[in-house]
Amino acid sequence: MLTYILRRVALALSVIMATLVSTFLLFFAGPADPAQAMCPELKCTPERLASIRTSLGLDKPLFQQFTEYFSGLFVGRDFQYAGDTVHCSAPCLGFSFHTGRPVGEMIFTRFPNTLVLTFMAVIIFVTVGVSIGILAATRRGTSVDRSLIGFSQVFGSIPYYIVALLFSLYLVTLWGVLPQFQSMDKGLLPYLGGLIAPAIILGLVTSTSYTRYTRNSMIDTLSMDYIRTARSKGISERTVLVRHGLRAAMSPIVTILGLDIAALLAGTLITEKIFNVDGIGKQAIDALRNDDLPVIMGTVLIAATAVVVMNLVVDIAYSYIDPRVRLS
Amino acid sequence: MENPLNAMPGAAFEIEAEATPPPAVVAPEHKDVRTGRSPGQVAWDRLKKDKVAIVCAVIILFFILVAIFAPLLTALQGTDPTTGLPASPDRTNTDLVDIDGNPLVGMSPHHWLGVEPRLGRDLFARWAYGARPSLIIGFVAAAASTIIGVTLGLLGGYVGGAVDRVISWVVDFFLSLPLLLLVLAIVPIVQLRIAGGNDLTAEELSTIRFWVIIAVLVAFGWMGLARLVRGEVKSLREREFVQAARAIGVPTHQVLFKEVLPNLVGPIIVSASIAVPAYITFEATLSYLGAGLVEPTASWGRTISDAQNSFAIYPLWLWPSVIALSALVLALSLLGDSIRDAFDPTSRR
User: Fold this and answer.
1) Predicted interface score ipTM higher than 0.90
2) Which of A49, A111, B119, B281 shows its CA 20 to 30 Å from the CA of A119?
3) Contact assessment for residue A164 and residue A270, using Cβ atoms and an 8 Å cutoff
4) Residue B347: closest CA among chain A residues belongs to which residue?
5) Whole-angstrom distance, CA of residue A163 vs CA of residue B6
6) Are A157 and B290 inside 8 Å of each other by CB?
């Protein structure tokens, strides 16, 4: 067991490390000039560009830049900025070229918005997806089953951004059925109210795949011998479904859920952009527009780490549930 | 002496050959129609009976025809009475918009969907031509990523050892990256690397961007199939028929292409058919988020992005592209699901 965990941790660490190196090479060695991005004024003298490059350490050799960035993640580092020394404490992701603020702080102040949105969407897609899945499984083969599955297939197949965009344009912008996103300063209720629209659409579209997982898993479970045994003992159908069926059917779904939450934390980009939610996804898109490399890199790094860590947790948890996994 | 000996087997064969037809005729009545047919043929027969699949295929065919005959369809609108020029997807007509950029022409015989606000380009022409990039990107990227995925999967699964470990690691690595964000960041970087510094026209830049998008999509899209093929090959190579082929000295490439690969046709076709709508969606999403196709290429994703701010005043700008993109992706996805069911012996709809 310990060897298995150690091997998985080593693999996860190597993947995170590779993400770090490759994004660094890609962005920092890329052709976009960060000094130009920091100096948006039209008349940016060569001297000023050069001094920005020096203060960012962009004139140093690539390898040295990388080791500085890397050690900054663990012990923090000092920047020379406009004559002053600015300390960036660990984990240091550098300073935004655009706003001059520490990237770590920028990401963590936006992160709660993404987190709340993800959490609300998870509640919606788990309840909607699982209950429709159970309904379809228990009515298997009937017209109810066929129409539920057919609808979820159609709804889940239309490009997500179009569904979200139309929902936002008509229900939020044009008809004002649902409120627009507002920041936390306006109070908790308007804030949560503004997240309803994006959470509903993200939750409903994601729920379509959960409907299908749940239905298939439930059908497999309900055809097991022990379910027949339970029924023949005279236990009520409701108890059979929930206590005997659902509990066993949920274990593969919990696995997928773990991975999906990690993917959502990194992937609410489209939702945040369309509904104008001030989360890390929208921040990353804005950073792309401004060539703000440290912000993009920090977001990529955190997103990749979240996916890798969730993968690891799910794998290890699964190896406890199902001992066969360890042998492969 | 020789004659009867030679004739004997031949005669026996002929007798057998004559004896065979009756059971062959009886076979279909014997319930099991599937005897002696490849999984591909079985799937094809099931697919032909699937009504959803037929409807989807018709919709896809419609868009393929629109893409092919876009110039012809555009020409059907005739010449515009104001400008005296035939409709074209690229030409801006400032005569057709007022000073604020509001279009002066709505739905009319010469502009079936009206003209674009601000630039006055014919919206129907842009819609018809817009089918092209979507379809080309979908099919080309799916084909290329299938080839890469199958090759790497075969290599990892069959060779095993260090090669397999490296390929599996790369697959794990790519799968943990935040795909959309990275693609958004990489497309402009690659574009700059290729086109940076050169003095290129908007058309040339647009073409370069088109191929950059395909390349980036392929670079990030092959992992799922590689992992699937690797797993299948790993179990297939231990099977008796593959062992037998290797034992009698069949060269490796022949074992791979004649023994192993034919057993994977089903999963590969299914994976490729699901990839096409996924790539089309991805391209449209990229175009919406600002890292996709650029002007002057007509693209549904771009049109939706441009039209979203005045959707309430000019629904004809937004909706044709929204409907076309949704219908095409939906038809391709549902057809992919049907193909998967057709190849799956346990499925029953």
Assistant:
1) no
2) B281
3) yes
4) A216
5) 74
6) no
The rounded distance, in Å, linking the Cα atoms of A198 and B209 is 31
Model confidence at B15: pLDDT above 60? no
Check CB contact under 8 Å for A289 and B182: no
**Residue A123 contacts B where some CB pair is shorter than 8 Å:** no
Query: Over chain B, what is the mean pLDDT?
Result: 82
Structure tokens at B184: 């958004």
Helix axis angle, B51-68 to B39-48, nearest 10°: 90
Q: At what angle do helices B161-176 and A2-28 cross, to 10 degrees?
A: 60
Distance CA A138, CA A47 (A): 73
Provide CATH 1.10.3720.10 ranges for chain A: 103-321
What confidence score (pLDDT) does residue B216 get?
92
What integer pLDDT is reported at residue B65 of this predicted model?
95
**For A103-321, CATH number?**
1.10.3720.10
Does the pLDDT of residue B219 top 90, yes or no? yes
Kindly identify which residue of chain A lies nearest to residue B308, measuring between CA atoms.
Answer: A169
Q: List pLDDT tens digits, range A16-75.
A: 888 888 888 877 666 556 666 566 555 567 776 777 667 666 677 777 778 877 877 877
Instruction: Sketch the domain layout of chain B as residue ranges.
Output: 51-347
Q: Which residue has the higher pLDDT, B75 or B225?
A: B225
CB–CB contact A162 B193 (8 Å): no
Query: What is the reported pTM?
Result: 0.84
Check: CB of residue A274 under 8 Å from CB of residue A163.
no
| Residue B1: per-residue pLDDT | 38
User: Has residue B173 got a pLDDT over 80?
Assistant: yes
- Say if residue B33's pLDDT is above 60: no
- Minimal Cα–Cα distance from B8 to chain A, Å? 57
CATH topology (fold) of B51-347: MetI-like fold (1.10.3720)
Q: Which residues of chain A have pLDDT under 50?
A: 328
- Neighbour-count burial of B265, counting CB atoms closer than 10 A to its CB (0-12 exposed, 13-18 middle, 19+ buried): middle
- What is the model's pLDDT at position B17? 43
Kindly report the length of chain A.
328
Is the CB of residue A76 less than 8 Å away from at least one CB of chain B? no
